[in-house]
Amino acid sequence: MKKILLLCTILMVSVMTTACINNLAIKELNNKAESYLNNGDTETAICRLKSSLDLDNEIYQTHYNLAVAYNTIGNYAGAIEEANKVLELKPELSDAYYIIAVAKEAVAYKVLDDAASASAPSVDAISEFNSKAQESIDTYNKYLVKVPNSSDSEKINGKIDELNQKIKELSEIQDKSLNNSDLKKKLIHYKATEQLDYEDLK
């Protein structure tokens, strides 16, 4: 019986020691990662943060820092995934919504940048931008609901207004494009039938 108690005690001490070592290692990795982030060495910070997650995947600060790092290098899908993990682990952390909103805004504008080779964005590109921009607006609003007296609320409201204005402008372009497309179809139909109702073209 004494041997069993001794064995259990040794195992408990071993588990507690391992947990302490892991916690110290995680803290050290996170501190180094934060230092690298502050110094602009984002890639090294990401490596440290991933190592920290290998030791313990349930520490929200690690996911938060990784989301910030991913946003910095333009890995917006990664930033959104990590910020959502933060919200799973710590739902009250409103800054995670801000990270997601920024990432979604960047994704929306990237759609337009990718379509910039054309003289005007396609109907599909406009639809995709409008969808992503609306997701960003919704997430910015979630952040503002969580932090109504935020010091950056004026800046965020400015971003929301800017996105809404862009959606409006692009929607008007999209409507004109669709109308032109209808006009082209009517002209093709006219060539085929040699009949044209001018009222249709108004």
The helix/strand series, from N terminus to C terminus, equals HHHHHHH
**What is the rounded distance between the termini?**
96 Å
Structure classification? mainly alpha
The total of helices stands at: 7
Whole-number average pLDDT? 78
Number of strands: 0
Gyration radius (Cα, Å) is 26 Å
Low-confidence stretches: 2-21, 183-202
Helix fraction, binned, reads over 70%
Task: Work out the strand percent.
Answer: under 5%
Shape: elongated
The description of the largest β-sheet is: none
What does this protein structure show overall?
- This protein is mainly alpha-helical.
- About 80% of the residues lie in helices and about 0% in strands.
- The chain contains 7 helices and no strands.
- It has helices at about 1-40, 40-55, 60-75, 75-90, 95-115, 125-145, 155-195.
- Helix 1 runs antiparallel to helix 2, helix 3 (about 60-75) packs antiparallel against helix 4 (about 75-90) and helix 5 packs antiparallel against helix 6 (about 125-145).
- The radius of gyration is 26 Å and the shape is elongated.
- The termini are far apart.
- About 25% of the residues are buried.
